[in-house]
Backbone:
């Protein structure tokens, strides 16, 4: 209950209390805007009729905005304003109508608890109204609630504290132990009959657990006598299921759900129950009402929860019985602190008077019971401007778009940037630079742009395009058609140094014992290793700079690095960390091509000719070797003495068996050393000077005298592609 100083001339006017109309099923009821409107109220106290007209216009405007928000929220499942903003609008209207009852209209949204049920489902009339809850957003408001409860009860009051699950409230009807009907809350009196959909939710029992009669307590018998009763609770989506659902939607190019609550609410309202089932909704029961008066009917909320449990309903385990308000406050504080540790979203704590007889005594005012209150946590959603989309390059070369935001407060933290996941996410959700966007933030997790606020579009927004070159190193960006992420194709890209080194040194690759997480981190941070070829430049004096590296470990490490040079082309290829090249693929290519150079010179089609090499791998390998920095890195590896070739699997003798070659001039793709290795690997011989015994001269640009001599002797002259053809 908010204490609001109501100005009528005096500096401190009389205190009135304002009942907060919490939006049913909405989580973020909030009082923020109340304070700031005091000046408007000051004006409103003026007797001038002109002011009255202004206020009436304001009330109309508020009603229209609230109706629109309700429609978007309930009918379209596509809210465009945050819950906190919605609550601020509603509270302003409530306050205005309370102050000036003549402004109240019968169709004002304040006159009902929620939106009317949609026409898509049969109506579900509630035997007892489904109430909403007043909010407390501060300890003071909790205190006011407690004081009033104790006063009205005329006795000590015990409370039950429950987590406020952020989903949607439903009612379930059981007859003779079986679920007969289930419905949404709707406007509190009539909801939607969604029985078929609710039946798909696995945690909602279709039949009650067969209870064993316990003669010592008589409890089993009691349950069997409870023939007709109603259970209420919350349908929600686990955070893990929400992530999965959004990943699936992304794959199908559908816009993501802004939060688990919207996904749950939409899930319950599917016309095809099979679609509800696919969302994997969950359920927690928190209310039990028995039709026929029965001696065994629970007398307290605490016992009702226990009964729900024995009947087979999922009841949230984090419930607490509090004898004092201090205990309640402690529970609220702890729950808010722990809120990220639960696999479901909670947006507050529901505090209920435990004793049902006391609940009755306290009663209901309008739609809010006086025996319960919702303590609301700080909201975690806000709207702000998307100023720009920036690209950062991740450790694995992924290009990650991130939102540059106009700074905004969310849950007590100033948020200036948020993740946008990937290009597809931006496209599917139609997020544009300049948009007003909805940003959500959960604890320490990076804030996320949930989507654009379409009603705020001006037409001046710009669509985003992923750069074609890596913003860190300028190399080609690859976006495989079936993948969400774009990647930098340069293995030497500084952004990727650490991950690349870890992989290069790993057991299945070059197996350099000693280079684990810690050392890889140190080597890259100290810039001793910028790309994997630098590994072979490490020496005693460079390693002496690494903290906690002793003489002995330096010696061992250098020995291991030296040994790794002999691993051969398959493991080297794997160690390069080319996308889609696992150990198997690397082995096939090494077997077929014999040397790294041959692979580097092959085009996509040639690579794909190898058995077991698919188009994805072929494409990825070709793109990797096309990058100049990658070719240079390979050359540095070769210079360091890393073995690039393995004896090729040769059928009879080898394609070039017994043939003698001379290399001259610069070849377009291969270095001379590389070409020589390939010739040798295929059984040929490379000599330095041209003679009658020379079979082929391979000539590049600026060949010089060797070419002239070859021409004089009538020796076959090849260019690089001629050599490649022979090698095949
Ligand atoms: S009790 C009169 N208990 O919060 C009591 N509600 O506005 C009505 N909710 O509509 C509900 N967790 O959707 C209760 N443990 C809990 C709850 C809970 C979530 C939701 C429910 C209700 C809203 C309160």
Residues:
């Amino acid at each position: 209950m908010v204490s609001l100083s109501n100005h009528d001339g005096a500096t401190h006017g009389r205190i009135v209390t304002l009942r907060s109309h919490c939006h049913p099923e909405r989580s973020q009821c909030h009082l923020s805007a109340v304070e700031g409107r005091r000046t408007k109220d000051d004006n409103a106290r003026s007797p001038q009729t002109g002011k009255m007209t202004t206020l009436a216009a304001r009330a109309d405007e508020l009603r229209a905005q609230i109706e629109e928000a309700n429609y978007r929220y309930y009918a379209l499942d596509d809210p465009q304003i945050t819950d906190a903003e919605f609550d601020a609008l509603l509270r302003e209207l409530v306050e205005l109508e309370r102050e000036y009852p003549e402004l109240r209209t019968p169709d004002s949204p304040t006159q009902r608890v929620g939106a009317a049920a949609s026409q898509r489902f049969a109506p579900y009339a509630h035997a007892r109204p489904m109430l909403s809850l007043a909010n407390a957003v501060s300890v003071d408001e909790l205190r006011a609630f407690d004081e009033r409860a104790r006063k009205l009860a005329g006795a000590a009051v015990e409370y039950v504290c429950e987590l406020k699950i952020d989903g949607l409230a439903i009612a379930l009807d059981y007859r003779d132990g079986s679920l007969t009907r289930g419905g949404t809350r709707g406007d509190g009196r009539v909801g939607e009959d969604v029985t078929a959909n609710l039946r798909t939710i696995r945690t909602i029992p279709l039949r009650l657990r067969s209870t064993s009669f316990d003669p010592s307590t008589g409890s089993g018998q009691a349950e069997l006598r409870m023939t007709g009763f109603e259970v209420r609770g919350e349908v929600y989506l686990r955070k893990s299921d929400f992530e999965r659902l959004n990943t699936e939607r992304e794959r199908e190019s559908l816009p993501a759900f802004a939060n688990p609550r919207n996904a749950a609410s939409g899930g319950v309202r599917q016309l095809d129950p099979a679609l509800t089932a696919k969302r994997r909704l969950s359920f927690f029961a928190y209310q039990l009402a028995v039709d026929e008066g029965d001696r065994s009917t629970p007398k307290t909320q605490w016992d009702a929860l226990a009964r729900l449990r024995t009947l087979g309903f999922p009841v949230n385990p984090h419930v607490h019985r509090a004898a004092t308000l201090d205990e309640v406050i402690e529970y609220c504080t702890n729950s808010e602190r722990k809120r990220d540790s639960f696999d479901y979203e909670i947006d507050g704590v529901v505090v209920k008077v435990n004793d049902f007889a006391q609940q009755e005594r306290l009663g209901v005012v309008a739609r809010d019971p006086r025996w319960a209150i919702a303590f609301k946590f700080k909201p975690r959603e806000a709207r702000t401007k998307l100023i720009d989309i920036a690209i950062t390059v991740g450790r694995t070369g992924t290009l990650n778009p991130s939102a540059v935001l106009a700074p905004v407060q969310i849950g007590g933290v100033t948020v200036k940037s948020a993740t946008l996941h990937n290009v597809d996410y931006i496209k599917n959700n139609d997020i544009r630079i300049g948009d007003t966007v909805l940003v959500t933030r959960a604890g320490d997790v990076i804030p996320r742009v949930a989507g654009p606020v379409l009603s705020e579009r001006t037409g001046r927004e710009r669509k985003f395009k992923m750069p074609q070159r890596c913003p860190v190193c300028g190399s080609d960006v690859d976006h495989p058609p079936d993948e969400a992420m774009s990647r930098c194709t340069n293995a030497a890209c500084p952004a990727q140094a650490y991950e690349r080194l870890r992989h290069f040194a790993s057991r299945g690759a070059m197996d350099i014992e000693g280079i684990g997480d810690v050392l890889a981190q140190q080597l890259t941070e100290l810039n001793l290793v910028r790309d994997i070829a630098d590994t072979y430049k490490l020496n005693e004096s460079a390693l002496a700079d690494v903290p906690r590296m002793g003489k002995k470990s330096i010696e061992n490490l250098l020995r291991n690095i030296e040994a790794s040079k002999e691993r051969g082309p398959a493991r080297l290829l794997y160690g390069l960390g080319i996308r889609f090249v696992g150990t198997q693929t690397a082995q096939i290519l090494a077997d077929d091509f014999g040397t790294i150079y041959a692979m580097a010179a092959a085009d996509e089609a040639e690579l794909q000719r190898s058995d077991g090499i698919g188009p994805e791998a072929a494409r990825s390998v070709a793109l990797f070797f096309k990058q100049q920095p990658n070719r240079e890195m390979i050359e540095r590896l070769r210079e360091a003495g890393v073995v690039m070739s393995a004896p090729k699997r040769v059928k009879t003798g080898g394609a070039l068996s017994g043939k003698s070659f001379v290399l001259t001039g610069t070849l377009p793709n291969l270095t001379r050393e590389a070409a020589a290795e390939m010739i040798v690997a295929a059984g040929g011989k490379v000599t330095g000077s041209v003679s009658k015994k020379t079979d082929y001269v391979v000539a590049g640009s600026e060949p010089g005298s060797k070419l002239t001599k070859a021409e004089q002797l009538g020796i076959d002259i090849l260019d690089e592609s001629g050599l490649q053809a022979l090698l095949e």
